[in-house]
Amino acid sequence: MTAVRSVLVVGASAAGLTTAEALRRKGFTGTLTLLGAERELPYDRPPLSKQVLSGAWEPERAQLRSTQALAALDAEFVLGDPAVGFDADSREVTTASGRTLTADAVVIATGVTARTLPDQRGVRGTHVVRNLEDAAALRADLLSARRVVVIGDGVLGAETAATARQMGLDVTLVGPQAAPMTEQLGPLVAGHLADLHLRNGVELRGGVLLDALHTQGGAVTGLRLSDGTELEADVVVTAVGCVPATDWLGNSGLNLDNGVVCDAHCRAAPGVWAVGDVARWHHQGLGRPVRLENRTNASEQGLVVAADILGNGKPYLPVPYFWTDQFDVKLQVHGIASPVAQAEVVEGDPVDGRFVVRLEGPLGPECVLGWNMPKQARVQRADLVDYYTRPRQPVTP
Amino acid sequence: MKITVEEEKCCGAGQCVLIAPEVFDQRDDDGIVILLDAAPAEDQHEQVREAAAVCPAACIHLDDNA
């Protein structure tokens, strides 16, 4: 492979920035450009539904790097100009403002966009939480609201409900699962999470979906659930998942299937890589394609992609990891909780509010969850490494 | 190299400990980062840089001029 002299990173959030920084750290001296859809300098998203929403942090504090650190990167930041088109053969990116950018290596790091419900478009008082602007708008509405309903019982929905409750609002958390985050935690730990929300005064409505929003004068006033329940609300937050931001890649020639499809090295095409929430790469340890929407993956994958661009790549084999902070609980999740895994408390005790749970699957331990035991969970993670890093053949059902 | 950590930003992931166990540890009670060596020897620098890069809370700061 001829030496790469220029790199264009499309997406200026955690994954794109980490890739760019890693390139420089590993000695890349060529031209480096980051193209970002948003106007803000790169910022971190996990605080949006917690510290930024609650007001504990000024939004600036979520900035990922200081202005000096960004300047030291010696990269050109083209911000506030979304990519709108790409050709994988010529590696040409076109932007909303009409720019055409190209490079020897293009890294796709455009992340995901929040799904919205058809009903909520243009309705005042309805919100998503994906970017800084969303969090600021939601915070402004929450400050004058009394009742909020959160639709969606995944990580973001549960965090948003907890934050709004801690701001003193009446909060109802609605979702299809029996307990919030059952998919990510398994039933045992999700049950403890449901108890935590109930103890703190969140009303939980599980096993239901949104049926219809009620509005008056263009503003939300409440909603009806699929079981017929009517709820009043000044604010409705939808946290019903995300979709990979691949609209701009429609005519690119890349393989798109729930993200940008990549090989084990996160390569999407010659000279084209994908990283972060948007990338669906072949995880050799699991023997299947994986796309992870979490903060740690953005950084870890960025390191691997940077190394691969510079010709020192290796297959990307992470033990997936995410954390969430809700009320007084810090929850750590190493690995992926499969629905069939058996849960066992292996350290601590739920009665004391501190414990570690291990999920055992047919091939061994698959997931370790820490409930107010971050260090202990991280130590137990060692038992998972083999499961995620030993290359295996695809499992035939 | 001089390392500083923002304890109040730390989320307790422990990624830094996995990468540079001679430089970082975690508190037993809440998992917050413990800086074992704020000015590590040269042979640790690469791991420390990687730990700072992957820290999901961006709370590890490095000063190469110190």
Explain the overall architecture.
The complex is a heterodimer of chains A (397) and B (66). Chain A is an alpha/beta fold. Chain A folds into three domains: 175 residues, FAD/NAD(P)-binding domain (3-Layer(bba) Sandwich); 125 residues, FAD/NAD(P)-binding domain, CATH 3.50.50; 62 residues, no CATH class. In chain A, the strands form seven sheets. In chain A, strands 3-2-1-7-20-19 form a six-stranded mixed beta sheet, covered by helices on one side. In chain A, strands 9-16-10-11-12 form a five-stranded parallel beta sheet, with helices on one face. In chain A, helix 1 runs parallel beside helix 7. The model of chain A has no long low-confidence stretch (mean pLDDT 96). Chain B is of the alpha+beta class and 66 residues long. Chain B has two helices and four strands; from the N terminus they run βαββαβ. Chain B has a two-stranded antiparallel sheet with strand order 1-4. In chain B, strands 2-3 form a two-stranded antiparallel ribbon. Chain B is 23% helix and 21% strand. Chain B has one domain: Alpha-Beta Plaits, CATH 3.30.70.20. At the A-B interface, helix 1, helix 7, strand 23 and helix 8 of A face helix 1 and helix 2 of B. Chain B: Keywords: 3Fe-4S, Electron transport, Iron, Iron-sulfur, Metal-binding, Transport. Chain B: Pfam families: Fer4_13. Chain B: Its cofactor is [3Fe-4S] cluster. Chain B: Ferredoxins are iron-sulfur proteins that transfer electrons in a wide variety of metabolic reactions. Chain B: This is Ferredoxin. Chain A: Pfam families: Pyr_redox_2, Reductase_C.
Q: Tell me the CATH architecture of the largest domain in chain A.
A: 3-Layer(bba) Sandwich
Q: What is the CATH C-level name of the largest domain in chain A?
A: Alpha Beta
How are strands sequenced across the largest beta sheet of chain B?
A: 1-4
If classified by CATH, what would the architecture of chain B be?
2-Layer Sandwich
In one word, what is the shape of chain B?
A: globular
N-to-C span of chain A:
39 Å
Number of strands of chain B: 4
* Terminus-to-terminus distance of chain B: 6 Å
Low-pLDDT runs of 5+ residues of chain A are none
**How would the global form of chain A be characterised?**
globular
**Whole-number total of structural domains of chain B:** 1
Output the CATH topology of chain B.
Alpha-Beta Plaits
Overall mean pLDDT of chain B stands at 95
CATH topology of the largest domain in chain A: FAD/NAD(P)-binding domain
Largest sheet of chain A: 6 strands, mixed
* Largest interface summary: A-B, 27 and 20 residues
Instruction: Trace the largest sheet of chain A across and list its strands.
Output: 3-2-1-7-20-19
Q: How many DSSP H or I helices of chain B?
A: 2
